[in-house]
Amino acid sequence: GPTLRLILGDQLDPLHPWLAQRRADVVYVLMEMRQETDYVLHHAQKVLAIFAAMRTFGRHLRGAGHRVRYVTIDDPSNRQRLTANLDALIAHYRAVAVEYQWPDEWRLDAQLRAWAAQAPVPVRAADSAHFYTPRDGVARALAGHRQWVMEHFYRQQRRRHRVLMDGDQPAGGRWNFDADNRQPWRGDPPPPPDTRPSHDHRALWHSLVAAGVRTVGDPQADALRWPVDRAEALTQLDAFITHALPHFGRFQDALSSRHTRLFHSLLSFALNVKMLRPQEVVARAEAAWRDGHAPLPAVEGFVRQILGWREYVRGVYWAHMPDYTRRNALGHARALPAWYWSGDTGMACLRVALRQTLDGAYAHHIQRLMVTGNFALLAGCAPQEVHRWYLGVYIDAFEWVEAPNTLGMSQWADGGLMATKPYVSSAAYLHRMGDHCNGCAYDPKQRVGERACPFNALYWDFLARHRERLAAQPRMAVIVRQLDRMAPADLQALRAQAATTLERIDRL
Ligand code: FAD
């Protein structure tokens, strides 16, 4: 019998070493399963895009002469669980062995390891050959540090992989251009064109609905904008490098209600399902700088996200799972407001970010961190509930990257392992970085009263609630001093305002 090689829905890399040769004694197995559609409530586009990309990948493999067993969601033989399907396929093919690529999610890794220990045939695991660093690479790089500062790891990565280096020195003489990358965007330069493909996936959508898969958000099944294969992902990468990368840095932190994407790449889905390799994306960005097409601060800012943050969060995840997703350092327990699932709120910044998320399964980093994340943290929402929301609604949400970003960076639930201070702000920051406040029911300049922007009172209430804890963070010292100097009556008024705000949180 053959060897079965499992390919998970986020392992769609046609350049994987497995595929270098055609082998008659290997059957590649891809499966659409309720186990994967149901572990959290997902955005419709996320399920559609992953399954559509898996189907395309299966067709490409067959076209290249590989043997493929593709189990659709409505295949009568589908047991809807990974290990039950593997057992059935081993029997069906009289397989002699099973091979899988190391999953990126702890959930699947644990499931496969437990199954392998009692499987009827030998089970071997192989590298997915995608990342720069092994799973334990960050833990080794930062061993002994109490806080896992990304910057340490990032500089090592730059040196080790010789990215943006001139000899031993960082290109341009600086490692970090963050200070140049914090401008609001007022309409100039114009936003890049959206050159993404558009696919009709109505047939797939009907079979998902018929199978009873529950989702959230607009499926846009007749015109889905996410790439389904590597060729489309490469076209998208080209368009990003040409049109958006030159401006990526300056407007990296900007917010806009007119052009929500701004100069971001929209490449996270293609990267996370492994249609693109991080190394090639980084190499293209570096070449754009060396060719004089894009300025160094833009290219460094972009490279930092992929060579630095993306690898770093993966290392944090593997070093701290399974405990990490249970952490709640600030003891937050409030339910997430119902309008996170509808976008129905009078707060314009949140409304724009939430509606866009529900319509398109996408929001850029600052929307996730400083709008939806910031509000949930200030309001004291339960981090596990916030985690499940982010894990469900974004096209690029896979737990290895989502959980550290949500629980660590955004909600400070790990008590400061990742972020040296909580990412919180009052309305002033949102007003400075974006244009939402003009069309908002609330006034960013008011701190108390009916029209006061809720971010203001919630911000000071958060600081007061967690003063002892935050005072221990050196980077919070200035803000804690500001809090301490506030007249008691003013603080009292702010905290009363926060209490009223939280009482009517579902109607903000
Ligand atoms: P760009 O801004 O164009 O950045 C380029 C690439 O860099 C991205 O495609 C991504 O691969 C990588 N990148 C950028 N920032 C990060 C980061 N902080 N961590 C890891 N990689 C990064 N990213 C995900 O891929 N999946 C998630 O589930 C996810 N959840 C998040 C949850 C929260 C609360 C926050 C604050 C951030 C989250 N991020 C997540 C990180 C980041 O917001 C997205 O990667 C990014 O917005 C994707 O859009 P883009 O491709 O246009 O990114």
Q: Your description of this structure?
A:
By secondary structure, the chain is an alpha/beta fold. The protein is built from 20 helices and nine strands. The protein has helices at 34-38, 44-63, 82-93, 106-116, 137-141, 150-161, 202-210, 230-248, 268-272, 278-290, 296-320, 348-360, 365-379, 383-393, 399-410, 427-433, 454-465, 467-471, 477-485, 488-503, and strands at 3-6, 26-31, 42-43, 67-71, 97-101, 123-126, 165-166, 169-170, 215-216. Strand 7 (165-166) and strand 8 (169-170) form a beta hairpin. Helix 11 (296-320) crosses helix 15 and helix 14 packs across helix 15. The model has no long low-confidence stretch (mean pLDDT 96). Bound molecules: flavin-adenine dinucleotide.
